[in-house]
Amino acid sequence: MEVTARAKYVRVSPQKARLVTELVKGKKVEEALNILAFTQKAFAKTLKKLINSAVANAQQNSKMDVDTLVVKRIFVDGGPALKRHMPRAMGRATMIRKRTSHITVVLDVK
Question: What is the C-alpha to C-alpha distance for residues 84 and 86, in angstroms, rounded to an integer?
């Protein structure tokens, strides 16, 4: 039985988020949380909170044993981008896109 948790509109680019999610894909939950605790990327803290939320969902809603949970799937989709302008030379402006992400974590019993 699968358990999911989602975080939407997270202010990190999908490309940067995918770098961190690849570290924990397919790992046991305990091992994934240990990896994230020692990862230097700023997004690791957000992903750790999301995995803890999925574990809480598994305990509360599905009465699953936490020790047997595995990160079955984890994926990052792009969300809407905040569009800003930066002044450039000769009166021009360039578009700055502040990207957001939608992250989904799926846990399953091993």
Answer: 7
Interaxial angle between packed helices 14-24 and 29-37, expressed in degrees from 0 to 180 and rounded to the nearest 10 = 130
Q: Give the tokens for residue 7.
A: 């975080």
C-alpha separations of 90 from 24, 87, 93, 94, 96 in Å: 47, 9, 9, 12, 18
Structure tokens given for 34: 């240990």
Tell me whether strands 93-98 and 3-10 are parallel, antiparallel or unpaired. Answer: unpaired
Measured torsion, CA atoms of residues 57, 39, 8, 63, in degrees rounded to the nearest 10: -10
pTM score above 0.85: yes
Q: Is the CATH number 3.30.497.10 carried by domain 3-109?
A: no
Give average pLDDT by consecutive 10-residue segment, the chain, 110 residues. Answer: 96 98 97 97 97 96 92 97 97 98 96
